[in-house]
Amino acid sequence: MSTEPNLALSEPIADEVRKTTCYMCACRCGINVHLKDGKIRYIEGNRDHPVNRGVLCAKGSAGIMQHYAPARLRAPLLRTGPRGSGEFREISWDEALETATKWLGEVRARDPRKLAFFTGRDQSQSLTGFWAQQYGTPNYAAHGGFCSVNMAAAGIMTIGGAFWEFGAPDWDRTKLFVMFGVAEDHDSNPIKIGLSKLKQRGARFVSVNPVRTGYSSVADSWVGIRPGTDALFVLSVVHELLKARKIDIDYLIRYSNAPWLVIDAPGTPDHGLFARDAEGKPLVFETVTERVAPAGTGGARPALSGSFTLPDGRKARPSFHLLVEKYLDPGYAPEAVAEETGVPAATIRGLAAEIARAAFDEAIEIDQPWTDIYGERHQSFKGRPVSFHAMRGISAHSNGFQTTRALHLLQVLIGSIDCPGGFRFEPPYPKPLEAHPTPHGKAEHFGSNKPLSGPHLGFPRGPEDLLIDEAGQPSRLDKAFSWDAPIAAHGMMHMVIANAHAGDPYPIDVLFMYMANMAWNSSMNTAGTMKMLTDKDEATGEYRIPKIIYSDAYDSEMVAYADLILPDTTYLERYDCISLLDRPISEPDAVQDAIRWPVIEPDRDVRGFQTVLLDLGARLSLPGFADPRGIPLYKDYADYIVRHERRPGIGPLAGFRGREGDRSGRGASNPDQLKRYIENGSFFSAHIPLEAQFFKHANQAYQDFAVKMGFFDTPKPVIFQLYSEPLQKFRLAAEGLREPVAPQSHRERIQAAFDPLPDWFRPFEEAAIDRAEFPYHAISQRPMAMYHSWGSMNAWLRQIHTKNPLYVPGKICDTHDLKSGDWVWLTSRHGRIKVEIQRTDAVNDGTMWTWNAVGKRRGAWALDKDAPEGTRGFLLNHLIHELLPPRGDGMRWSNSDPVTGQAAWYDLMVRIEKADTGGEAEPNFPAILRPVDIPEPPDELRYGQEWAS
Question: What is the pLDDT of residue 7?
């Protein structure tokens, strides 16, 4: 590496450059913020930052306009008119905090369940979750339940980690990279850097996605799959690999539960569970001694097939035997799945052959001795250079959990997890399921003025861990961890408003939300949600949801529906903590975390939400936020970051710990910790020793490193769970064989969806509607230039996307006599919208799509009432209902994955008809009044006084 300093790209334009962390998407890149005359002049990438190495996208550069946006809220607000009108009066922070404390205190003293506290993509969930736990409400979660819980839950339950923030492809060594369902806003700079490495090395890149934009447009091969069929496609590839015997048997025996014996005793409470010894260790059949032995026994050569008799006389078979039996079924053959997936059989066979060739004929090796968790010494790291990456495109379906598990199964079968060239874990992962908490929030877990006994979110090991009462009813408002969604590891935020409105399972008194635009693009059934927020009880005349507290930095559509507004700062005006306790930015070879800090002071009467939450916690005398005398424990969020400890020596930040700032991971708090981060570019990085960099799930050196860093207190290796025992426990409960027994109304659904081996079933909405009436798929994705709803009010980014057409395949256009520029009616089983179309052939021929969150409600975000985002932009959300079509059984089934509760955004089925030309997108709602604290913005934004006026 050169020691010469990087040359400046241009002449200095600033009085000062301050280094912090971007917040224009979830990449969390390092940025240099140039300040001149007390204003932000320029934002560029930080070349020394390990995430982006100086690369910065349009979103990051446009952070200037995010900070100076006319839509910024300027002071606390109290509603004076009807909900939805936008009529407020400006109040002081004293009044705002006194009001919030009164509302929250009354609820906590009476029944803490009656507070629902849910946050959007705030990246401070270790704090918000801790606050809700100390408050005592079971009703807390963040945005993951409607975004990516299938990715996290399926990954952690199968391999101990997941795509996106828990791992990454080995960009430097992989020879074949296969990407599923990734839109270009996700992890965009690291992916762009990685793809450039692949192109330079001549490695192959295959993209499986219904839409060919962004990354897919530069792929060597694009597979335009039909939405919701990815699992069928992947399992067909597995079928071909098993037929060709192109699987890594040694890897499976060493690192997976493939040889574990599964009890074969239909009709008994143990059927389908693992056979275990008296100490609870799973058993294998040892082929040399021809008897059962605990898994991991030194020198054992376990069987992978056959039927064996256990010491108690019961029969059992290795889980791999069941796996092979399932996936060699002709129903998974490429010819059998081609029509359903929309992918030709030859393409499936070709990809399977390509995977086999790269994994086994082009295997690589790194000469580095290492020792595994069994004490065996290896002379090198052997790699299968095939890597995968996936995101919301495969997970936002009602079958997304099993789809994601299928993809992880494929990786394990070829031995490509955490090896050179494969998918690699990023610390603090991998973690076995047992390292995660079970969820807390049963009736016995909460009471007036008492904290919960543990964290809200976690992973049930079986039905005994569900948050249900003695009658089987949900403890949580969103019904997470109930029979509706037993493994809802991120909660079900998209169901909160609908359930609160219906009083199902009970009504609430206060809805407290942070940066969650639920009155627009973050809710299904948007018009219905706005009505729910404004509906009143006929008997009392009071709102069905009595009080709503909302915090945001901007005048989003949700602001108008709140009663009390607590205005947040922009990301350049506050401290944030990108923590290993929360959502890390580690790389496979390094442990990393980061901060944001106020590179510029607010020019408005606003406060960072985290500091406000700490203040409220102290005012409410919550344990952990105030001492027994009611004195606040923390001055502000910066003080909390430095001094808070989750366990002795383990705090929000891993770097510069200890009194001298010379410790990493574990150590006493350091009063100069934030200063050291700022001096280091606002990040911390600790290199993983080479001996510990691969096979982290079974590498003794990595396990010791993880204990030293404080990830665990004792080593916690991971055995890949190809066959999932927790899922089988739920099936047994659905058969009435395991306590608590599943209600009769839920049994069929659990039996179908909880197969312990990855499975495919038709998405629920598609299965429930008439395909002749609604023959087409409709999906959305976010563009690279925008992220969630806040990017599409940014003055610079708006010039890239000011409206969003509906992209319609040429085949559909020809069928319905449509051309670019025509207007159409798009109809689902729930609603109808009028939109402008654009013809395209870069999409699956039965799928229409559009950009998400470009469309705006008139009057919101300080946009002109005639801005094209409000007149020609639109949302598919209007067509999607939060509930599935009625089945006649009286149940309110959520439009979600039945395992995790993830919102099934991409199950939408529609029909299309030509409409009158011209006009505006419909539905078109009345303009929201601009809050009193936001002045009329100028027609043109220019650098200077107008930005800050």
Answer: 55
Q: In what order do the strands lie in the sheet with 576-578?
A: 576-578, 590-596, 683-687
Three-state DSSP class for residue 393: helix
Strands 564-567, 77-79: parallel, antiparallel or unpaired by DSSP? antiparallel
CB 261 within 8 A of CB 358: no
Q: How many CB atoms lie within 10 A of CB 481?
A: 32
Helix axis angle for 230-244 and 345-356, nearest 10°, is 60
pLDDT of residue 19: 98
Task: Write out the H or E segment, with its range, that includes residue 565.
Answer: strand 564-567
The per-residue b/e assignment along 34-68, b for 16 or more CB within 10 angstroms, e otherwise, is: bbeeebbeebbbbeebbbbebbbbbbbbbbbbbbb
The pair of structure tokens assigned to 905 is 């955004």
H-type alpha helices, 375-525: 392-395, 400-413, 496-502
Q: Is 256 helix (H, G, I), strand (E, B) or coil?
A: strand
Q: Maximum Cα–Cα distance for the chain, whole Å?
A: 84
Q: What are phi and psi of 179, to 5 degrees?
A: -115, 135
Q: Rg (Cα) of the chain, in Å, rounded?
A: 27
Other CB atoms within a 10 A radius of the CB of residue 815 amount to 12
Q: Which residue has the tokens 């009194």?
A: 659
* Token pair recorded at residue 896: 């979600």
Residues in the chain: 949
Average pLDDT, 10 consecutive residues per value, the chain (949 residues): 54 86 92 94 95 93 94 96 95 98 97 96 86 96 88 97 92 98 84 95 97 94 98 98 98 98 97 97 96 92 97 97 98 98 98 98 98 96 98 95 98 98 98 96 79 95 96 95 97 96 97 95 95 96 97 96 98 96 92 97 97 98 96 98 96 96 96 98 97 98 97 96 98 97 96 97 96 97 83 89 95 98 97 97 97 93 92 96 86 94 97 90 93 78 53
Structure tokens at 506: 């009970």
Query: Please, which residues have CB within 8 angstroms of residue 848's CB and are 6 or more apart in sequence?
Result: 776, 777, 778, 779, 806, 807, 808, 809, 812, 826, 910, 912
The CA angle 389-414-332, to the nearest 5 degrees, is: 85
CA distance 324 to 320: 6
DSSP string, 798-849: HTT-S--PEEEEHHHHHHHT--TT-EEEEE-SS-EEEEEEEEESSB-TTEEE
At 1 the pLDDT is 44
What span, in angstroms and rounded, lies between the C-alpha atoms of 371 and 761?
Answer: 41
Please give the helix or strand (H or E) that residue 250 lies within, else none: helix 249-255
Indicate the helix (H) or strand (E) that contains 683: strand 683-687
Q: Is 891 exposed, middle or buried (0-12, 13-18, 19+ CB in 10 A)?
A: middle
For residues 537 and 568, the answer to whether their CB atoms sit within 8 Å is: no
Rounded to whole angstroms, how far apart are CA atoms 232 and 236? Answer: 6
Instruction: Name the token pair of 805.
Output: 């057409």
Strand, coil or helix: what is 189?
Answer: helix
- The rounded distance, in Å, linking the Cα atoms of 291 and 275 is 13
Paired tokens of 611: 């500091």
CA distances from 928 to 68, 557, 872 (A): 21, 8, 17
Which tokens belong to 464? 């005994």
The Cα–Cα gap between 548 and 532 comes to 12
**For 264, phi and psi rounded to 5 degrees?**
-110, 85
d(CA 569, CA 391): 30
Backbone angles phi, psi at 428, to 5 degrees: -85, 15
- Assess contact for 329 and 218: CB atoms under 8 A: no
